[in-house]
Amino acid sequence: MSEHYHDVGDLRFLKEMGKLAPTEFNAWLNLDKIVGRDEGAIPRKYRELIALAVACTTQCPYCIEVHTKAAKAAGASREEITESSLLAAALRAGGAATHGAMALKFYDQI
Fold first, then answer.
1. Over the stretch 27-55, which tens digit does the pLDDT of each residue have?
2. Which domains does the chain have, with CATH numbers?
3. CA 87 to chain centre
4. How many whole angstroms separate alpha carbon 70 and alpha carbon 67?
5. Angle formed by the axes of helices 78-108 and 44-58, to 10°?
6. By CB neighbour count within 10 A (0-12 exposed, 13-18 middle, 19+ buried), where does 71 fall?
7. Which residues contact 3 (CB under 8 A, 6 or more apart)?
8. pTM across the whole model
9. Spatial separation of the C-alpha atoms in residues 97 and 104, rounded to whole Å
10. 54 burial type by CB count under 10 A (0-12 exposed, 13-18 middle, 19+ buried)
11. Cα angle 42-28-36, degrees, rounded to a multiple of 5
């Protein structure tokens, strides 16, 4: 049994979402499939590492789990997984700093 920090039982609602909004759900599902494709200019391992970094910034536990496992299956090392998460942290911190600069701009507008 794997250890989860989220309730995987919640995923059962995806089927219902597909019934409630089929066009939007299928569009999302097809968009999500581009990460795992094997063709393209970016090799599969790097596609998964990019997806993992994005998942770290969006803080989606399901995506973090899926893309970590897929990156490992594609040959990513523990070091690459770690670097991907820290690159995401650096960019997230950068976003906070630039939003802080915007806060100063708004402050000065009053």
1. 998 887 888 887 789 999 999 999 999 99
2. 40-108 (1.20.1290.10)
3. 13
4. 5
5. 40
6. buried
7. none
8. 0.78
9. 11
10. middle
11. 30
